[in-house]
Design a protein that fits this description.
seven-stranded mixed beta sheet, NTP transferase domain-containing protein, WH-like_DNA-bd_sf, alpha/beta, 13 strands, transferase activity, Arc Repressor Mutant, subunit A, transferase, Nucleotide-diphossugar_trans
Length: 308
């Protein structure tokens, strides 16, 4: 049972859809469980529930929605999830969606422990997943919620079996952008790969290729700084290279995109022509639409991952 009902407010992005491994957080997590023949799988959804369900590439997942996700705690979602699944299996593995780096061997070790209450630990610190029996699951309905799932386990009649693992990922969640990027780097350093995603590069061609991201940035900076030299400095290219880029654009198009002004009340400088402004505006819109379309195509072919 996977809990994925939260708002992801501190992350400022929808955590289950974030890239992880060769897929997304959601598909990466579910794929690991599927490879271990864990069945059934219930996902507790809430915030952006339809987006999450549509992004998961397995059609046999059970979904339960926490309608009050914005006002309740994770424990409430746990109760909803176990109520859905407890009569379908003997034991229930409980974990949040935002722990995507947990190793398969960690899950295998925890699953091998025959105990009523199993809790994963790393260097003595509690983490996930947690495995409970149906009897414990039924007791959650009447629990007062103090200290959440941990409090319910500690108050239960059976002792907790702590399983020590060599996997810090059991408590490395991703609540903030900083934690997400730190986890990605940490996971990469231990040889588990880096998130895969599409990279869109749009170039315009006439007789020759004449406009790309560098040319776009150059013209945008000329428009804002009113100076070719300053624009070249901002883009990180020499003045001679910048001048060459402008000449190539104008030669391929057959009309000027930059005009130079000297003297006068407003002083000298360089400005984009009306055609130059239209060029950068349309290019920007084209790139954004291409990126959005590429994201859709990427998810269609790659979101499930390569190791299925």
């Amino acid at each position: 049972m996977i809990v994925a009902a939260g708002l992801s407010s501190r992350m400022k992005a929808f955590k289950p859809s974030l890239p992880f491994g060769d897929s997304t957080v959601a598909n990466h997590t579910i794929t690991k469980l599927k490879k271990l023949n864990i069945d059934p799988i219930t996902v507790v959804v809430g915030h952006k529930s339809e987006e999450l369900k549509n992004s998961i590439f397995f059609d046999d997942i059970r979904y339960v929605k926490n309608e009050n996700y914005s006002e309740t705690q994770m424990f409430d979602s746990v109760v909803l999830g176990v109520n859905d699944i407890m009569n379908l299996c003997d034991r229930i593995m409980i974990m949040p969606m935002d722990l995507p780096a947990i190793l398969e061997e960690t899950l295998i070790k925890v699953l091998s422990i025959d105990s009523k209450l199993v809790r994963t630990t790393y260097k003595g610190q509690p983490g996930h997943p947690i495995i409970v029996t149906n009897d414990f699951a039924k007791s959650l309905v009447d629990y007062n919620g103090v200290d959440g799932l941990r409090g319910a386990m500690e108050a239960y009649e059976s002792p907790i079996t702590n399983v020590e693992v060599e996997d810090a990922a059991v408590f490395l969640d991703i609540d903030t952008p900083e934690e997400y990027h730190e986890l990605i780097e940490w996971n990469y350093q231990r040889g588990k790969g880096y998130p895969v995603g599409p990279q869109v590069e749009v170039k315009l061609r006439a007789r020759e290729v004449f406009f790309d991201e560098t040319a776009y940035n150059l013209l945008i900076n000329i428009d804002s700084q009113k100076s070719i030299q300053q624009a070249c400095s901002s883009v990180g290219i020499s003045y001679s290279k910048g001048s060459k880029i402008i000449k190539e654009i104008e030669r391929e198009l057959g009309f000027p995109v930059v005009e130079k002004r000297t003297g006068g009340a407003g002083g000298g400088g360089s400005l984009l022509t009306k055609e130059g402004i239209r060029l950068v505006d349309n290019y920007s819109k084209l790139v954004e639409e291409m990126r959005q379309e590429m994201e859709k195509k990427y998810k269609k072919y790659f979101a499930m991952g390569l190791r299925v």
